[in-house]
């Protein structure tokens, strides 16, 4: 029985479950008290009993009830980490992994990286033999399965935030179901903020029992479901009378009006990404100069993945007296992280989502409307400490009649290239027959197989090729990037390509300069290469090294210092991976042609040709004749070489190609004859 979630369809008032107020930063005794005040604490015995007796336990509970931080500790206290075994807890987001791990280490009074550690791609903060509670992204756990398919070192895997239905979570759930058949002693805990538990339970129940199974001493294979009830505060929901066209501006004016009219309490704002968040921050800062009264007492804090660690800590530190925190966040604060002290929520109604069209083979990260389920989660963030308010920047009519009830699982809206290769590497050959929690579209699957075949990663029987296919699977990057690295070894430019791959794995190496675009463009010209962005990145990297990795150099050149430090780290890791795979590192010095060929070897599927007679720089993809334009952030913007290859598309009013390099068309048929077949002979 979950009586406290009243439906918002009825009145203007929502009731949410929420944890009682707590604060952090006190001694250990009071930390212990805080832990006991969390709603999940009342269920400690029940959870431990269910995990003991059931192979799979599903725990549903509102965000902030203590699922992520407490359950792994309960399991450890109950002995699940004895004998060197590890309790693993997966998260879809890297930032959540870091943040939750450091919180749990703090609660246990241990040093992060010892008993409690975490692993995200390119960052391992664990100690073998010592770490017994390990937080990791679901993607990293999938990678670990390549070396350890039955996850032998783990006693329990907690798959957290399962309601998000990320691609890796869904793959992981499918695989765990298989692993449990071979290792009945492995326990799986699935935790979720919303009541999709039944779907999950049906999924895990769907296993066939052979008669003999019942004789084996082991846990009940029927999944158990436990629902954690919390204490709730009302959240009053406000809607707009009329829709707005600029939600960033609307966000800013809503924040200012809350600050003017409402009593103290922090504000959590949901925007879509770093760009939005920076724009809003800038507008709020401008306001401080022009109209100090309206914005007095505001402490503006951005929250998005890729944020430097120091800034993350500010988010969790208590608000000074007389001040009001404004946290401008992506949907990471929707369920993954809980911030104390939030009383007001401003919901833009949007988030960035990945969408893939198998017909055009184009994947986009687009700003798209959220679902009702998300809108409810967002509003719920306001009711943790006391009754709160949620300002939705859309109309009630829109909420009721147009918003989708639930989001679409990522599995059904992304390109499946990485997913296929990971399953293949785990020896799962019949991918269409794999037991998915949500089935992927056959078209997307076929596209993925086709691309992997043309990259030389799969053979005619759809098996991984040796050595290329197996090597690609070992590289923790998109298969197209991995293929580019492997080709660079043959072409003798792996030193450079590894640098490029490291830069491409980072959102942007340029300093964010909302409002000073012109200076940034001028700074870029100092590094710009006629061949395109990839070569430009090499120039920046060289300059950074020559400066002695100086932060002043970065500042002068509009380069993001933190991003460059990350590039160096990632590059080191990639170098290690390459050496392990037997790829020697060679530099091509100034031979940019081989470098461009290596990029082509990975990304030939993204080739575009400038439309003849195009006056506005319109390109069409060679494969499917989609319209594409070079992104204004590219050094080739307005240069418009005849043939280009892009690394990714972003879609706003148009499809924009980001990170672009110019190529020769003859390379396409030379490098990818299977892909560019007779139809494109006109090349
Ligand atoms: P759930 O997983 O159910 O959403 P969590 O275990 O993440 O809940 O959070 C439980 C409590 O721990 C919350 O009250 C939250 O405020 C607190 N908490 C979590 N992380 C931190 C942190 N980094 N700093 C301070 N408090 C935190
Ligand atoms: Mg959680």
UniProtKB/TrEMBL annotation:
The keyword rRNA-binding does not apply. GO terms for molecular function: ATP binding; hydrolase activity; RNA binding; RNA helicase activity. Residues 48-213 form the Helicase ATP-binding domain. Signal peptide: none annotated. InterPro entries: DEAD-box_helicase_OB_fold, DEAD/DEAH_box_helicase_dom, DNA/RNA_helicase_DEAH_CS, HA2_WH, Helicase-assoc_dom, Helicase_ATP-bd, Helicase_C-like, P-loop_NTPase. Pfam families: DEAD, HA2_C, Helicase_C, OB_NTP_bind, WHD_HA2. It catalyses: ATP + H2O = ADP + phosphate + H(+). Residues 243-427 form the Helicase C-terminal domain. SMART domains: DEXDc, HA2, HELICc. It is an enzyme of class 3 (hydrolase). This is RNA helicase. It comes from Kalanchoe fedtschenkoi.
């Amino acid at each position: 029985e979950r009586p406290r979630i009243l439906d918002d369809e009825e009145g203007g008032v929502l009731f949410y479950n929420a944890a009682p107020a707590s604060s952090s930063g006190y001694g250990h005794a009071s930390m212990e008290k805080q832990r006991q005040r969390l709603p999940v604490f009342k269920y400690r015995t029940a959870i431990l009993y269910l995990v003991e007796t059931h192979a799979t336990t599903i725990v549903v509970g509102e965000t902030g009830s203590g699922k992520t931080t407490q359950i792994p500790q309960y399991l450890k206290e109950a002995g699940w980490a004895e004998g060197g075994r590890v309790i693993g807890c997966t998260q879809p987001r890297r930032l959540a992994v870091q943040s939750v791990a450091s919180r749990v280490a703090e609660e246990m009074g241990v040093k992060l990286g010892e008993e409690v550690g975490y692993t995200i791609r390119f960052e391992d903060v664990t100690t073998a033999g010592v770490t017994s509670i390990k937080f990791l992204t679901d993607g990293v756990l999938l990678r670990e399965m390549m070396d350890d398919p039955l996850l032998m070192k783990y006693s329990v895997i907690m798959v957290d935030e399962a309601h998000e239905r990320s691609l890796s979570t869904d793959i992981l759930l499918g695989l765990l179901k298989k692993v449990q058949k071979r290792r009945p002693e492995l326990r799986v805990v699935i935790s979720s903020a919303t009541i999709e538990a039944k779907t999950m339970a049906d999924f895990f129940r769907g296993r066939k029992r052979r008669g003999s199974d019942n004789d084996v001493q082991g846990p009940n294979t029927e999944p158990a479901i436990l629902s954690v009830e919390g204490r709730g505060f009302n959240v009053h929901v406000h809607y707009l009378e009329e829709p707005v066209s600029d939600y960033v501006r609307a966000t800013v004016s809503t924040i200012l009006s809350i600050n003017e009219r409402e009593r103290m309490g922090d504000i959590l704002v949901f925007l879509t990404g770093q760009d939005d968040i920076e724009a809003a921050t800038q507008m709020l800062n401008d306001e401080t100069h022009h109209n100090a009264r309206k914005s007095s007492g505001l402490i503006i804090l951005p929250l998005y993945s890729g944020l430097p660690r120091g800034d993350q800590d500010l988010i969790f530190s208590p608000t000074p007296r007389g001040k009001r925190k404004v946290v401008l966040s992506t949907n990471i604060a929707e369920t993954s992280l809980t911030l104390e002290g939030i009383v007001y929520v401003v919901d833009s109604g949007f988030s960035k989502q990945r969408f893939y069209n198998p017909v055009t083979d184009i994947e986009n990260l687009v700003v798209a409307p959220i679902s009702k389920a998300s809108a409810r989660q967002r509003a719920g963030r306001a009711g943790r400490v006391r009754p709160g308010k949620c300002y939705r920047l859309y109309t009630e009519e829109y909420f009721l009649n147009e918003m989708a009830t639930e989001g679409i699982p990522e599995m059904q809206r992304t390109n499946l290239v990485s997913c296929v290769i990971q399953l293949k590497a785990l020896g799962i050959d019949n991918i269409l027959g794999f037991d998915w929690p949500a089935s992927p579209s056959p078209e997307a699957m076929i596209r993925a197989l086709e691309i992997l075949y043309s990259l030389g990663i799969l053979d005619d029987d759809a098996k991984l090729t040796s050595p290329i296919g197996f090597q690609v699977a070992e590289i923790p990057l998109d298969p197209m990037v991995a293929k580019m690295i492997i080709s660079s070894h043959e072409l003798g430019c792996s030193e450079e390509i590894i640098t490029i791959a490291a830069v491409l794995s980072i959102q942007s190496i340029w300093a964010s300069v909302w409002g000073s675009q012109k200076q940034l463009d001028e700074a870029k010209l100092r590094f710009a290469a006629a061949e395109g962005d990839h070569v430009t990145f090499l120039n920046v990297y060289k300059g950074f090294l020559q400066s002695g990795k100086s932060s002043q150099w970065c500042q002068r050149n509009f380069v993001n210092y933190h991003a460059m430090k990350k590039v160096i780290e990632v590059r080191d890791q990639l170098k290690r991976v390459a050496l392990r795979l037997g790829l020697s590192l060679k530099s091509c010095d100034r031979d940019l042609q081989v470098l461009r060929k290596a990029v082509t070897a990975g990304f030939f599927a993204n080739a575009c040709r400038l439309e003849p007679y195009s006056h506005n720089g319109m390109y069409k993809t060679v494969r499917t004749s989609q319209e594409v334009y070079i992104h204004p952030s590219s050094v080739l913007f307005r240069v418009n070489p005849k043939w280009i290859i892009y690394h990714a598309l972003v879609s706003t009013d148009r499809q924009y190609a980001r990170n672009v390099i110019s190529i020769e068309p003859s390379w396409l048929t030379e490098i990818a004859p299977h892909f560019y077949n007779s139809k494109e002979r006109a090349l």
